[in-house]
Specification:
It comes from Herbinix luporum. This protein is an alpha+beta fold. The protein has 11 helices and 14 strands. It binds adenosine-5'-diphosphate and magnesium ion (MG). Adenosine-5'-diphosphate binds next to helix 2 and helix 5.
Amino acid sequence: ENTINHIAAGEVVERPKAVVKELIENAIDAGASAITVEIKEGGISFIRITDNGSGIAKEDIPLAFMRHATSKIKTAEDLFLVNSLGFRGEALSSIAAVSQVELITKQAASLNGYRYIIEGGEEKSLEEIGCPSGTTIIVRNLFYNTPARRKFLKSATTEAGYVNDLMERLILSHPGISFRFIVNNQVRLQSSGNNNVKDILYHIYGRDISKELLPVEFNSPDITIKGYIGKPTISRGNRNFENYFINGRYIKNHIITKAIEEAYKPFMMQHKYPFTSLYYEINPSLLDVNVHPQKMELKINNGEQVYQITYNLIKDSLSKKEL
Ligand code: ADP
Ligand code: MG
């Protein structure tokens, strides 16, 4: 029975990046406005996430590490409610099954906080301690008890690179949250949380890219788009820089991807992909979501319209400038 749990857990959290993603989503769900992420050895030996969110009440701590049976999300409306990044109710239990977890948490209204230790899914201790409000989760020695899963991990440098890519996207998708990303005791990424996307793009991609960006904006009652698109001169050999966010989430949708790429086509060499960082706000009633155990698929009901809006916005902006 334990083995089955461990294998299942390995599928939910297949590498440090997945652990970091789940823990940050929990911090965001808890209303954090500042989140610090630290990793050592690519996150394999050490991951620490500190947030200033709601904290967890003493009686809820062990429950948080139990798999809850039902999904919180049934409709697209649920998905885009503020407190709905977590939807499977199995992240903490899965992570704790395959690592050594230390949780330190305090609710603002509580006089003291708590430290909880759970290793390989086994509770070790729950004690009262003094600590600031919010939650810190430390995940040590990922897959220490499942050597077969550990073998699938790449080098520390490669794993750190995956976490770094994730952090860039998370920072871009939540410009209102202040993030700090620390690798082997050195600050790698930092954001102010003051909603300044241009500053974030500058920080992540540097001056050469940020001076080649055009601001774009579209407003209608059901759909708004804001953000930046790169001039064709900074096109790339892959889609890694073709980013867009729908209602605060980094989600792929083939209609939007197609609209972006078609709009760039007349301006771009073959086999090149644009740089974009676009923020969509779409009325959730126009969205449909399929939730699978591992991934989410977003469908836009009026895809035609979103395609045309995106295509025209980009094409007009690229045509206007002398490039
Ligand atoms: P889910 O996010 O799908 O509910 P998780 O296993 O990720 O499932 O988390 C379980 C529960 O633990 C959350 O629903 C939340 O109540 C609590 N929790 C986890 N992380 C935090 C955090 N950083 N701050 C406050 N509460 C948290
Ligand atoms: Mg969660």
